[in-house]
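Hey, quick one: can you model this chain's 3D structure?
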Amino acid sequence: MIRALLVDDEAPARSELRYLLATHPEVEVVGEAASATEALKLAAAVRYDAVFIDIEMPGLSGLDAARLVHGRPGVPQLVFVTAHEEYAIEAFAVEALDYLLKPVDPERLAQVVRRLVSLQAPTGPVEKIPVVSGGETILLDGDELHYARADGDYSRVHTHERSYLCTRSLRELEKMLPADRFVRIHRSYLVNLDKVAAVRRAGSDRIRLALDDAEHTELDVARRQSKAVRERLRI
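Sure thing. Here's the predicted structure for all 235 residues.
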């Protein structure tokens, strides 16, 4: 069951979205908020799997709220629901799952629900990652991945000698891959800890990971992720 929170300063808009979601038995609307500030307080108290949130609201906007929690562990999937299509690029910059325009089209909403269901499906350690090569989709062993980089709505995965376009977003890859080996070191990078050859200082409170790939790639760890990465590497 997908637990959803609806956030919109207009009550009729929340009611319409609740009505549309009611046709999907796999979704349960367990909360509503009339502002982004109220939503952040609710999300801190109760766990949600998905938040359907408007962008233009009095006070803190939906994008502002998304930026405040972007990159934190356990953040629910974000689906922006707005009448303004000009915010699409900013929405995907905070890794929103999708972007729905008002009035919400039921079929587009159904697509979003299907994606949410697929992300929630229980999975074990992933052995194969679909990537594009030579105009066709091939399956890579998860153990081959050294790191993955965000690439718009998709990602680019890097092995020892090559890189491939992957049609899964970085957030989706993070959910698919074993959490005991793969760690988000930055909003744009996911790293296989088994491929880390060395750790170097990159400032007073920053570290840099050196990988054992052919290019000897070095990736900086975001300041707010440094402590967690150090703990995972036991350094």
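One thing worth noting: The mean pLDDT is 87.
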